[in-house]
Design goal:
44% of the residues lie in helices and 10% in strands. By secondary structure, the chain is an alpha/beta fold. The chain is globular, with a radius of gyration of 22 Å. The N and C termini lie close together (8 Å).
Amino acid sequence: MKSLRVNSIRGLGSLAILLLWSVASQAGGISHIVVFGDSLSDNGNMLAQTGGLFPTTPIYWNGRMTNGMVWNETLAIDIGAALTNFAVVGAQTGTSNAWDGQLPGSPFGGLQNQIAAYTSGTVDPTAVHFIAAGSNNFLSIPSDPAAAITQGVTDITTAVATLKANGAAHVRIINLPDLGLTPRLISAGLTTAGTGLSNAFNDALAGSLASAGFGDVAIFDTAAVMREIVANPAGFGLTNVTDACIDPFDPAAPGSCITDWTLDADEFMFWDDVHPTRAVHGVLADEIRASLIPIPASAWLFVSALLLLGRVRQRAA
């Protein structure tokens, strides 16, 4: 009789886990993700526009500015959603692109061009729309940071307004990463300046969206996630959070993850001097999913009741 009761308790635990998984997978009802942004989100658009010239393999994987899938691809697969991606490497928040005039196929345009291309067609009112832009506005510390921040924030707020005006009910913002943590700014001795710039931009963006009446637009705090990783690398399976895995200008140099078989790219935070590895993209996807599809309180109450019932039966045994 005791073994039967133990099996029943185990069965309740398994049932609770299955219920949580089922509720989590259905909570958002998300079937379509639409993404706008830059190299942190581009899954091959720049490669296509340049006729396969950039970003090149084996430095970058299939047109991604990293060594594997980017966050939105992993997220879409994880939740079983279709993915429409307008993000382009080099895109700034306006209509400019850092690579305009430097590669065949330009101009490549910025965030506003991506929004215009999407809203000129059919806007899916049920899709979750992600905007992840701003980093390319700060390829160097601007001489007038306040003006640069104001312009970027205004551009993103305008993009949100345009999407909503065209029927996009669900908009999410991926804010600016902590630029001060990138190998590029670390090596330049600009960690403090980069972090301060990111903080100022993210604070201004949150304020702008609130002032514009977009309180329903959730902001995913990329900078905070980066800081969590740096504070506890081992907790994320990483060993190196300060160095680039490759030098994009000399990928075959000694010490590169491409040429040195003793290096494990999945233990690095950064693939090159500014872009995260596929491992970190995976972390971002997990964190975004956790904030995107919360477990409803009612589900937690029901599962808690099941587990409490199991404990009562265990005592009775």
